[in-house]
Amino acid sequence: MAGIEDVAKLAGVSTATVSRALSGKNSVSAKAKAKVEAAARELNYTASASAYTLATGRSRNIGVVMPFVDRWFFSVILEGIETELIEHGYDLTLYNLSGGADQRRKIFFEFLNRKRVDAFITVAVKPSEDELQQLAIAGIPILGLGGPISGARTVSVDEIGAGRLATEHLISLGHTKIGNISGTPASEMEFHQPNLRRQGYLDALKASGLTAHDSWLAEADFTIAGAYHATKQLLGDPRNAPSALFIASDEMAFGAIMAAKDLGLRVPQDVSIIGMDDHDMSEFFGLSTISQNVRQQGSNAAKTVIDLVENLKDGQPVNVEQNREWPGTLIVRSSTARPPRS
Hints:
Blueprint: H1 4-11, H2 15-22, H3 30-43, H4 49-56, E1 61-66, H5 72-87, E2 91-96, H6 101-109, E3 119-123, H7 129-138, E4 142-145, E5 153-157, H8 159-172, E6 178-183, H9 193-207, E7 217-220, H10 224-235, E8 244-247, H11 250-262, E9 272-277, H12 282-285, E10 288-291, H13 294-311, E11 322-326, E12 329-331
Parallel strand pairs: 1-2, 1-3, 3-4, 4-5, 5-11, 6-7, 6-8, 8-9, 9-10
Antiparallel strand pairs: 10-12
Helix pairs in contact: 1-2, 1-3, 2-3, 5-13, 8-9, 10-11
C-alpha cells in the first residue's frame, strides 16, 4: 500500500506539501496541488482520517442542524453547504430537528461531547444560551443562518427590507390595493421570518399612504395547497379583491397563481403576484420574486466555518457575536404588471 512518502516522491514535493495539498490548505500552489492529486490518484493513496485527527485534533467534519430536510429552501441550502465542504475535503453530518425537543437535547448535550464535528452550521435554528455555552465548552465554533443569535456569528437576510422591497415594487407599478399572504402561527420559524416579511409589507404601505385592510391579509402553511386555499378567499370577493399580492414564499406564490387562474383571473393582467426566495421553479411560473441566493448562502456558510476551524488561534473566543446581513435581490418576471383599468 502506498504511503505519503511515495506520493511525495512521485510528485516531486515534500511530505508536508502532500499533507497540506490533500487537506485542502490554501498555502499550496495550484500547480503543486495538481501534481500531488495526480500522484495520489496514480498510487491509489487516501490520507488516513484517524492520523489527521490525531495530528490536528480535528475531524474535518462539519455538523449542520436544521428543522426540516424535505423543503426546498433547506434542501437547496444544504446542497450549497455540502458542495463547498466536499471541495475543501470536509465531511458533513446532518442533524434534523424534526424529532422535537428530546432530539434537540441529545444533539446539543450528548453528541457534542463525542466531538464528532469541528464546527456547526445552524439553519433557521436559534440555539439557546445553554446550548451556546455547551458549544463553547466543547470548543466548537457555530455559524447561524436565519437571523441574529446573541453570542454567535450569524448571517441573516433583511426580512423586513425584503418584504418592503417586494411591496414597493407593486406600489411602483401603480397598485394601491395590495394583499399579503404570510405564514400561520404553526409554521413560524425560530426567527419569525413570516412576521418580519409582513412588517416590511406594512411599512411600505404606510410610507406610501396606503391602507392594509384586514380582508386583504391571509395566512397559509408555506405549502402550495395552503396558499391556493387562502388566495381563493382573498380574490373571491369581486367587490373588494386586491389587485396585487405579496406572498411570503415562492412555493405559496405558485399556489396563489393557480388559484387566480382557477377563478378566471389572468396573471398579471387582472392580478399581480410577487413571492420571495427565487425557487428553482420560479422562472417556469414567470414569478417575480425577492431572491435570497440560497445556494450561495450555503456555499458562503461552508467557506466561513472552514476558515474559522482552520484559523482559530489558541485563547481566541470560539464564538463571538457578529451578524452579517445577506442581500436580497428583486427579480422582475412576468407575474407583475400595472393594475387593470377600472
